[in-house]
Amino acid sequence: MASENSDGQSLRKGRLGVAGIVFFVVAASAPLVGMTGAVPVAMLAGNLTGTPGTYLAVGLALLLFSVGYAAMSNKVTNAGAFFAYVGKAFGPKWGVASAFASILGYVTIQLAIYGFFGGLLAGQMAGLGINAPWYVWTLVAWALVTGLSLLSVDVGAKVLGTLMVLELVSLLTVAGAILVNGGPEGNNIGASFSLTNIFAGGFGGGAGIAIAFAFASFIGFEATAIYGEESVDPKRTVPKATYWAIGIITALFAIVSFAMVTGMGASHLADKIVEYSSVNKVPLANPAAVLFAESDLYVGHWLTSIMEWLVVSSLFAGLLAFQNATSRYFFALGRSGVLPKRFGKTNVSGAPRDGVVLTSALAAVVIIFFAVANLDPILNLFFWMSAVTSIAIFLVEIFVSAAVVIYFMREGGENVWKSKIAPIASAILLALGLYLLMSRFNLLAGTVPDGVDPAATDSAWKMNTLGWVLDLSPFIAAGIGYVVAMIRKVHHTKMVDDVLS
User: Fold this and answer.
1) What angle do CA 235, 238, 239 make, to 5 degrees?
2) Radius of gyration over every alpha carbon of the chain, rounded to an integer in angstroms
3) Terminal CA-to-CA distance of the chain, rounded, Å?
4) What is the widest separation between alpha-carbon atoms in the chain?
5) Tens of pLDDT along 68-125?
6) What is the rounded (10 degree) CA torsion for 136, 346, 498, 419?
């Protein structure tokens, strides 16, 4: 593979360091969006005060995954990451199957963010007297994201870095103010981090719901290896970036959610969440109001006003991050012969041109469909697509954990912790997470039959037809990928020579 982009078939080298990759990955997790959207729901529908501990536990579980993932990145440097890792261990057909599931996950999360972005910005702009449908704002973001992605990845990293720093500062400012104040009942660490409260309600109830939301909040951390080809010394940069990304996301969610519990008071948490988030007596209709109410109380409305706009920038950062991730998967598939060869080409800036264009085209088609069908950008586009993403990514992560074990059993070169213990443990924990995500898909996506309360303990696996289709779509995508690999006659040698080395 060329050291420079002279042949148009390799991504430009040396454009990203650890910080640049971490910016992309943490931005993809959209922490401000998670704190305003996922955390209040995880608390009220899940294990209440134990939610901060749940985020910490899930982060530790994903650190186990990252041990084998980082070890594999030392052996394989490829823009297709999961695709390459699974292909190395199980052969090209399974590699392509995992790639199709991964692409579905990244395409749907970007679509979810487009919906949230358009719906949120339409409301905020209306407050300024500028009225336009949600899809107008979404298409403006779409054009900007496409343009930045075509320019080059380091331009995107600079944009993401600036937005992410502002986002983190605002969250930590609120958390710091609350924890210094102590809230109405003081800083009760045991209420949030004791095992009893973390597992309150059991896996079939509150704890399982909170775990499902926590796992979903980490989507995007695994993108570190995707940027390996464009990084400085990928064998060192990718592992460091992976650990830093998971560590930052884990610490941020655990600390800020603990501050939220402290600010409302552990014994009155449920009542306060209902009070803050209700619209027309419907709880959680506006979950962002929970964090904003605490910002008003402990810092001042001036910061809340800033945060309301930082949510928009956080969403935009996520759009750009997932655009880059998806386009690089298409690039890897084009270079391997799964997709037409033109997808394996880059432009003069070193960006995977046709991958960017295809990613944007898919997004445009879905956005226009939802607009024409008059479907809600948040209740439909955001919740449906984000729930699919959660299933897709964790399905592939289980494949990767197994691939790490198989690869090092065959090739050797790593110690037993990195090659067996950590990846096997992560596969078990991820399988548990996948089960919980799929069983609670009705709550994540809002796809329940009439008369079923998705938050009820006995509502697991109760979904309408749309819910089942969406819930199983990652498995369907993987199956299609396997068939495509057979039809395209993707051979192991070809993958090794052109993609995986």
Assistant:
1) 85
2) 22
3) 9
4) 65
5) 888 887 776 554 567 778 888 888 889 889 989 989 998 998 998 899 889 888 888 9
6) -60
Bridge partner residues of 231 (DSSP): 16
Place of tokens 């084009």: 334
pLDDT of residue 2: 38
**Residue written as token pair 């900007």:** 144
Locate 254 and state its tokens. 């655990």
Q: What residues are paired with 279 via a beta bridge?
A: 282
Q: Is the pTM value of this prediction over 0.85? A: no
> Rounded distance, CA 348 to CA 65, Å?
36
Interatomic CA distance for residues 243 and 137, integer angstroms: 35
204 HSE (CA, 13 A, CB side): 6
What domains does the chain contain, in order, with CATH numbers?
18-500 (1.20.1740.10)
Amino acid at 459: S
Helices (H), 133-225: 134-151, 153-181, 189-193, 195-198, 206-217
Question: Residue 244 to residues 214, 268, 386: CA-CA distances in angstroms?
Answer: 18, 35, 24
Cβ(314)–Cβ(163) under 8 Å?
A: yes
pLDDT of 8 reads 52
The CA distances from residue 343 to 190, 335, 475, in Å, are: 52, 7, 24
pLDDT at res. 495: 46
Beta bridge partners of 282: 279
CB atoms within 10 A of CB 361: 12
The C-alpha atoms of residue 102 and residue 133 are separated, in whole angstroms, by 31
